[in-house]
Amino acid sequence: MDLGLNDKVALITGGTGSIGGALARVFAAEGARVALTYRHNEVRAKEMADEIGGMAVHYDLGDPVSVKEAVDAVVTRWGRLDVLVANAALMKRPVPGRAFEDIPVEEWTQALRVNVEGVFHTAQAVLPVMKAGGWGRIVFLSSEGIRVGMVGREEFAAGKAALEGLSRSLAAEAGRSGVLSNVVAPGGTMPEEQAALMAANPMAAGMLDRTATGRFSTPSDVAGTVAFLASAANGNITGAVVPVSGGM
Question: How far is CA 141 from CA 19, 103, 145, in A?
Fold first, then answer.
């Protein structure tokens, strides 16, 4: 199936992680011109950009100036921006044994500032470009974990839940301009080789028992869903939240 992504310009934030890398490769394989972002791992980002014939752009989700500069760099190079995949996020390791009431307010505020305000600034920068072109696709990466609760990562869950409200609002505001906005919510996701190892873990086995497909999602599972929603093949789906969780 031709997704209609040939020559479309896609900005994929958080492009050096496992999901980001899968996203970049899928979009490039469909003929899109891909800009992937990095915050620290410039070498990895440029290697991947060379691999797919795209570009690597520095992008700090917590810095509005950096966000605008990244978007401007993409538009300057290719003259337009058709797709935003908002994949980058700040997620800290849980502190073992720490109760919710003991989360420092500074840590909570920083997480929401980066994961909500940073994505807000990114969407605000790309939307006028898409509207001017009369076509655009925005896909936010959330998490199925917000539906069951994320103990120890409450600030991350709150930020991801906020993106679902943002996406629905953008869908309503920008739909008549040809811009569709959706959310993809992965469940437990890991590369196939890691998933095979995790399946032997009793806790992981318990998760799989509650999953309809009996397996973890892979980055490729997520990337394929995102690519469809971000493509011309998606003619009229907007304001939706699509889980990629194996039916957890």
Answer: 10, 24, 12
